[in-house]
Amino acid sequence: MDTASMTQTAIKAYLEQASREEKLALIEQLTKDSQKARQLVLDFYGPIFLLYSIYDGAEEKESVVDILDRHVDSFSQIFQQKATAVK
Question: For residue 27, how many other CB atoms are within 10 A of its CB?
Answer without folding.
Answer: 22
